[in-house]
Amino acid sequence: LQQLDMESNGKSVDREGDRVEWQTGPVVWGTPGTNGQHAYYQLIHQGTKLIPADFIGFAAPVHDLLPGLIAQHDLLMANFFAQT
After folding, report:
1. Who contacts 70 (Cβ-Cβ below 8 Å, separation ≥6)?
2. How far from the centroid of its chain's Cα atoms is residue 72's Cα?
3. CA distance 12 to 43
4. Number of domains in the chain
5. What is the pLDDT of residue 33?
6. Which of 69, 49, 74, 47 is nearest to 59 (CA)?
7. What is the pTM of this model?
8. Are 45 and 65 found together in one domain?
9. For the residues 57-66, what does the mean pLDDT come to?
10. Do 66 and 38 have their domain in common?
């Protein structure tokens, strides 16, 4: 449902590429950004409504991580910066 409303319907143009004059795609929150990112960011970046948002990321993990997980944190932060 989230993907349908926010990603599929959350466009600011129609099939022909013409700008639409009506509100599209309601905001349906409910999953972490990494899981619902396509739905969230499709609507935020391409939708018809200005959606103010604060993005909060962590420069360093709160807990010590195993060496393999440090790279995971770096990937999450890269995704974070790509969206802001």
Report:
1. 61
2. 18
3. 9
4. 2
5. 62
6. 74
7. 0.53
8. no
9. 85
10. no
Q: What is the mean pLDDT of residues 13-39?
A: 77
- Interhelix angle 67-83/33-46, rounded to 10 degrees, is 20
- The burial of 9, by beta-carbon neighbours within 10 Å (0-12 exposed, 13-18 middle, 19 or more buried), is given as middle
Nearest to 40 by CA among 78, 77, 2, 9: 2
Per the prediction, the chain carries an average pLDDT of 79
- Contact yes or no for 2/36 (Cβ under 8 A): yes
In the chain, what is the greatest distance between 2 CA atoms, to the nearest angstrom? 51
pLDDT at 32: 67
Q: Do 2 and 40 reside in the same domain of the chain?
A: yes
Question: Which helix H or strand E contains 67, and what residues bound it?
Answer: helix 67-83
